[in-house]
Hints:
The protein has helices at residues 10-22, 27-32, 36-39, 52-63, 65-79, 86-96, 103-118, 123-126, 146-155, 199-204, 221-238, 266-279, 291-308; strands spanning 135-142, 157-158, 170-178, 184-192, 211-217, 241-242, 252-253, 256-261, 282-286. It is of the alpha/beta class and 309 residues long. It folds into 2 domains: 5-121; 135-308, Rossmann fold (3-Layer(aba) Sandwich). The N and C termini lie far apart (54 Å).
Amino acid sequence: MKSNSKIVSSNKIGELTQFLKRVRYIKNDLINGSLKEYISEIDGIDINNDNMEAILDHFVKEKGIDWLIVQLSADIYEKFQKTISVGQIIAIMHKVTGVKLSSTERSQLHELRKKIRRYDKFLKFFGEWGKNFDFLFKTLIFGLNQEDSDKLDYLLDKAVISAGKQNIGVEFYTRDIEIFEKSIVRLQIWEISTQSSFETIRLQYYRGAAAAIIFFYTDKKESFNLIKKYISELKDKTNLKFSPRKQRDVSIDMPLAIVGLGTTSKDLYDEVSSLVKDLNGQYFDFINLNYDNFDEILKYITSHLTLSS
């Protein structure tokens, strides 16, 4: 019986897809998880991260949302080493897809909220069902090429934008991070386009920024040279200062993370180190962009802002 399948709209399947990406249920889990024996039924769809939404939609239409959720919840249960119950996972996915929760499922979410408050490891994946944030900071990102920019959909949570609101030259994301004394910091992340056609608009987005992450590519000198341009623009609009919401009469230094992607030469390292020192910022040097090193950058920013606020 395909119960509940008719009430699951395409946008809800999209939200379910984003949830699965958030908990790192990706390509290998689709291929090797509980759906493995059914994957061969799908014709004309490549099994990859980008097509997860189409794959989930296929199973909803063919077997129903309840069947799909049971299969996925079993995989996630194993993925988190049985530290979150199957019932809690099912309750989350029912909430995401708009299925009315039973009293038992509401209790499951209540228990999950208590668990999130106790255990850091659940926060990045299930935080939105656990605790509201204590701090909110606007953080700017510059300098990523298209390939790395596309990774942000995996590394961060896509922000929900009000219907009808249009913003040109910027993409919005969020990330909740638990910091000192169990405080929750929400970073409201604006990825600012560095295309020259958006230059005038770009300057308008600097207002209210609390921090900035500026990327460059170590094999492209022009990429490094653009750092000074972004910093100059940012300084003109913010003076590289930030006033916490609860302390408007106080200004703190804006944390700046300069991130080199690739292998940094000795000469370039000395040059960027000098720049970062003058800015009282932090330099990060990574071969490529992934979840762990991006997390390191965000934790630097949240620690600095929380301690200063």
